[in-house]
Specification:
The complex is a heterodimer of chains A (452) and B (239). Chain A is α/β, with parallel strands linked by helices. Chain A has 16 helices and eight strands. In chain A, a hairpin with a 2-residue loop joins strand 7 and strand 8. The radius of gyration of chain A is 36 Å and the shape is elongated. With 239 residues, chain B is α/β, with parallel strands linked by helices. Helix content of chain B is 38%, strand content 25%. Chain B is built from eight helices and nine strands. Chain B has a six-stranded mixed beta sheet, sandwiched between helices. In chain B, helix 2 crosses helix 3. Chain B starts with 5 loop residues before the first strand and ends with a helix. The chains are: A alpha/beta (452), B alpha/beta (239). At the A-B interface, helix 1 and helix 10 of A face helix 1 and helix 2 of B.
Chain lengths: 452, 239
């Protein structure tokens, strides 16, 4: 144990003497924290879209007897995109062609009249015009998605109004009431009242006329009942398929918490794996390993010291990073105990994996490259969600990522950061098993170090 | 030799089917300066690593009467990004010295590097690095010091200063066993020579006796330089 203390001090002295390494260890997590922080706190920028409204001012959208709210058109659109107002079609085209805007949305002068015609007996087809510059496939798809989404919302609003109007007309037919046409009020009797009147007069009729009247009465009742059923159907026409989201598994925290967990785990993984693997390989590169293990420190003690170094530095750097993230996204500081547990378990397992890598290569440069080549793809694979690839490939990824501590470390840190995440017990057990397995591999691989 | 500082008895070491050492036996007295010589692959490093306890013999025994055996590997086992003082202090602490700083001062004095104590080791010459390397080997205050090809890569001036330093150690009573493939160096600095070839000990005695043996067994090369005569001697002995 005494030897471990002096070796730790020695490794920290060497780290201090390597300005590039020290700067990278501090700068890297700060850079990651700032990038992730900005990314999750600002969100994506709205696309710039030229907006030309040719609809005459003060034109109102009337669907049946209802007026749509005034702000619907312009404000709803400009809430979803950055509107660049243009005065005519030529200017809109010029801005799209020059790339100043992603697209131009033109509301033609007859748009409102055509929308208003939808609730009449001669409905028109309302159209808006979209000018797009498809020089870039990604941009084109982005514009398509935004415009389609905007129009879907507008269509839904109008369809709901039309459905409500249709329902009102059906209500008049069933229950009766007043109806205005060409400025005059018309009284509608309604099927329900019709049936009641007919039922009232039937007993007063001669018996030979009653069957025919009873048929008419029955038809009125049937029509009333069926039209009653049709009303909710018309309501559903506006949005026939509703979404009922039920979470059946994979409890997930908010996206920004997951992003922070990914950034923290990446930082911890790179710092710990590179540091442990590099410092162990350095003992071999400096020819110090045989001298140290000739009674000064045991191979197991040396491995423990390297893992301790990685966990210590990784803990400090990751905690600094998480505290830095506080400037962008408030984290629950009351869970800091769980953060520490998750980071310590993750650091130990990642450190043991780093030791196994460090024992496998002869030089620090080779081992650094190896550590990057192993950690980076494993980290990417660990982020592949189920359903994104075929089941066979996903199973292969699942088994592969279960062999390296990155994924359980990510799960543990996610669980530590937010209670909505998955439980922390399973990942911690997984990390403990991986730590033991990699420590054993590293210990066996160290035998190669002893060869003179 | 009853009061041997270090004794090897019929040491055999195999690597697969190949025998790297074939029953090597020898003993050294306190303060002796022994050179282990032989061509590349003769088994010099294998013998020293077994004497140092880094590898184990397949057969035979190694024992030291006075305790600690210091070992200085062929390539300097130093942390090049630490200073001279930091390296010495680290190993003094790892050795468990009660006064590690006092031990550092002692080694700085011994190596003559007191004024360069705060220099990063990587900036020192190969000769000075080797002196620190040996000083670290001496921190355990060994009765026997093993040096594996200590002068490899040093220029003549550095080599001369190194041997002055090593000879002084032997004069103070430390048994020094060093390996080399430089025959002239072995003859000049070794009080006793152990000749290895293909894992076999061909000769064990003072340099003058080796010259005599060479002259006796390879008379055709006796008038040529010692290195050429030595090669002829090995050839005569079937190596």
């Amino acid at each position: 144990m005494r030897g471990v203390r002096w070796l730790l001090l020695k490794d920290l002295q060497i780290l201090r003497r390597s300005p590039l390494q020290a700067v990278l260890l501090v700068a890297y997590p700060i850079l990651i924290a700032v990038l992730v922080g900005f990314a999750i706190s600002r969100g994506p920028e709205d696309p710039r879209v030229a907006f030309l409204n040719e609809v005459p001012p003060n034109t109102r959208i009337d669907v049946g007897s209802a007026e749509l709210p005034k702000a619907n058109v312009k404000e709803r659109i400009c809430k979803r995109v950055e509107c660049v107002f243009v005065s005519d079609r030529a200017e809109a085209e010029q801005k799209v062609e020059s790339g100043d805007v992603l697209a131009a949305l033109i509301l033609p002068a007859d748009l409102v009249n055509k929308i208003n015609s939808l609730s009449t007996l001669t409905p028109g087809v309302p159209e808006v015009e979209v000018l797009v510059n498809e020089e870039n496939a990604v941009k084109a798809e982005l514009v398509d998605d935004r415009i389609t989404s905007l129009l879907a919302q507008a269509n839904l609003t109008i369809a709901r109004r039309i459905g409500a109007e249709g329902g009102r007309y059906l209500g008049l037919l069933v229950d009766g009431g007043q109806f205005s046409v060409l400025g005059e009020t018309v009284q509608i009797l309604g099927l329900r009242t019709t049936a009641r009147i007919l039922e009232g007069v039937t007993p007063a009729l001669p018996p030979n006329l009653r069957p025919a009247l009873e048929e008419v009465t029955e038809f009125a009742a049937q029509a009333r009942d069926n039209l009653d059923v049709a009303k909710p159907l018309i309501d559903r026409l506006a949005q026939p398929i509703a979404v009922d989201k039920v979470v059946v598994g994979g409890a997930s925290p908010p996206l920004e918490i997951f992003a922070i967990a990914v950034a923290a785990t990446l930082t911890l993984a790179f710092v710990v794996v590179l540091l442990v693997a590099g410092s162990l390989a350095l003992e071999r590169e400096e020819n110090a390993f045989p001298r140290l293990t000739r009674g000064l420190v045991s191979p197991g003690g040396l491995l423990g010291e390297k893992v301790l170094l990685g966990v210590g530095v990784g803990l400090v750097v990751t905690l600094l990073m998480l505290l830095g993230m506080q400037f962008f996204v408030p984290l629950e500081l009351s869970r800091i105990g769980l953060w520490l547990v998750a980071i310590l378990f993750s650091g130990a397992a990642l450190g043991a994996a780093g030791a196994a890598l460090g024992a496998a290569a002869r030089e620090v440069r080779a081992v650094s490259l190896l550590a990057f080549m192993v950690t980076l793809p494993i980290a990417f694979l660990s982020l592949v969600p189920s359903g994104a690839v075929s089941p066979v490939i996903f199973d292969a990824i699942r088994y592969l990522t279960a062999l390296f501590p990155f994924k359980p470390a990510l799960q543990a840190i996610t669980a530590a950061l937010d209670e909505a995440g998955p439980g922390i017990g399973g990942p911690l057990l997984h990390l403990a098993l991986l730590c033991a397995a990699y420590a054993l591999i590293a210990r066996l691989a160290l035998r190669r170090f002893a060869a003179v | 030799m009853p009061d041997a500082a270090l004794r090897a008895d019929r040491v055999i070491k195999r690597y697969g089917d190949r025998e790297a050492l074939r029953g090597v036996s020898f003993a050294t007295a306190p303060g002796e300066l022994v050179a282990v010589i032989g061509p590349n692959g003769a088994g010099k490093t294998t013998l020293l690593s077994i004497l140092a306890g880094i590898s184990r013999p397949d057969e035979g025994d190694v024992s030291s009467s006075n305790g600690e055996v210091g070992w200085v590997p062929q390539q300097a086992a130093l942390y090049r990004r630490l200073t001279v003082e930091e390296n010495l202090l680290l190993f003094a602490r790892l050795e468990g010295h009660e006064d590690p700083r006092g031990s550092v001062e002692e080694m700085l004095e011994l190596t003559g590097l007191r004024d360069r104590r705060r220099e990063i080791v990587a900036r020192l010459s190969g000769g000075n690095q080797q002196r620190i390397n040996i000083a670290i080997g001496l921190l355990s205050r060994p009765a026997v010091l093993l040096l594996d090809e200590p002068s490899v890569g040093l220029d003549p001036r550095q080599r001369s200063r190194l041997w002055e330093f090593v000879s002084a150690l032997a004069d103070r009573g430390t048994t020094v066993i060093f390996s080399t493939h430089d025959i002239q160096e072995a003859e000049r600095y070794g009080g006793r020579l152990l000749v290895l070839a293909d894992g076999e000990a061909l000769f064990d005695g003072p340099p003058a006796e080796l010259r005599e043996a060479v002259r006796r067994e390879a008379p055709e090369a006796a008038d040529r330089d010692f290195e050429t005569a030595f090669v002829a001697y090995l050839h005569h002995r079937g190596h």
